[in-house]
Amino acid sequence: MSSSKFATVMLQFVPASFVVGAGMELFMLNTGFYDVALRKEAERRAEAEEEYQARRARIEARRRARLSNNGSSPSGGGGRGE
């Protein structure tokens, strides 16, 4: 008996949820929500890429400095504790 009650509730709930979801999607399409979301996501990704490139440049500069310091040192120990 409870499974038929569950089926009855689901037969009312599923179509109502579909209609609400479709209405929300139409609203977002008509208001330009996706255009704004796309632009903001592109800006976030561009900013993250700039930060990544800056961090990468700092790492490369440190690596080059370390290599040039190690190359001039006769022991090649990297200057730690020597």
From TrEMBL:
Residues 63-82 are annotated as: Disordered. This is Uncharacterized protein.
